[in-house]
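WARN retry 2 of 3 for item q-0093 after timeout on previous attempt; input resubmitted unchanged.
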Amino acid sequence: MLPGVEWLIVAGVIAIILIAILTRAVRTPVKCPREVGDVERALSAMFDDVRTVKFGDYVAFRARSGYIPLAVVVNCKKGEVSTEWPWPLALVLFLVPNLQIPAVVLFIWFWDAARRFRNTVLHLLSEAAAAE
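OK item q-0093 returned
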């Protein structure tokens, strides 16, 4: 291996973990509508395999953006939002020799898809809540 590549691997793993933790830690208060059917229909027009589950104070939206599985879980009572995306896959690929650069590209692609899905869900929820 090239000199300094070990540091690249360590720095990349630390960066991926920090970005994943910080992305998960970001909380935006959100108001939920009583009925989420309109939100699900709007998401179905933009993403594949959209599923919505409402249980108690929580609403979960699951979808696929291309081959990337995504999920957003909203606690309607507290206004907390949790985003789930396959960042560990990029982390594991980063540890494979000669796959560090494709792993970083894959991580950025996954992060962007998760960010777009989260922002879309939050926007649609706020619009639906405002329309009620």
